[in-house]
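Render this sequence as a predicted structure.
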Amino acid sequence: MNCQLFNEPNHTTIYKAYRTGYPQELYKKILEFYFNTTNIDFNNDDNDKKIPLALDVACGSGQATIDLSYYCHRVIAIDCSENQLKNATLKENIEYHCSNAENLTFLSPNSIDLITVATALHWFDIQTFFQQVDRVLKPNGGVLSVWCIGFPLLDNSKTIEILNNFYQNDLHGCWSDQAQLVIDNYESILDTFPYQQTSIKHIITYEREMSSLQL
């Protein structure tokens, strides 16, 4: 993983302030899959039905980590950028470690119940990461959850057409190979996953107002 990305002190401060989070429906679906039930009170912080131990890989400044901490008894979050971790929100049941996705040797074998990767898998040496997952994830019940943010959908069809043309044609060739994986919603690498897969094909809606300057 390239640790030089999003790593400068002023950049990590801005990243913390403006990096988007993820909708709660996403975490609900992860827990529903983990527990194989829909009868869970997700708003009860004292609910016994929490995932025992989660590992959030490439956590940045903790955008997904904080949300996971409400649904898990304990969360270990790692990132290869010390500056990102300096901006992370502290919480009693979260442990932050400076490490990269390809080196999880500080964790005991078969110790993790849930591993999450939030819009970061494309930066990894994916096959090496999977080898690490095989070592630390609990067999027969451990879950690896990987997701990315898709291209924004807007209410105005003409605006969508203009943005799509700019994004896919005018900027074609400007994207790195890694960024292209996100543009493709990871579809091109799903066949490389050495695990039984359950994909959420429908869109999880996340609404956020943006000004024309932000677009």
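Summary. The first helix runs from residue 9 to 18. Helices lie at 9-18, 24-35, 63-71, 82-86, 126-136, 157-170, 177-183.
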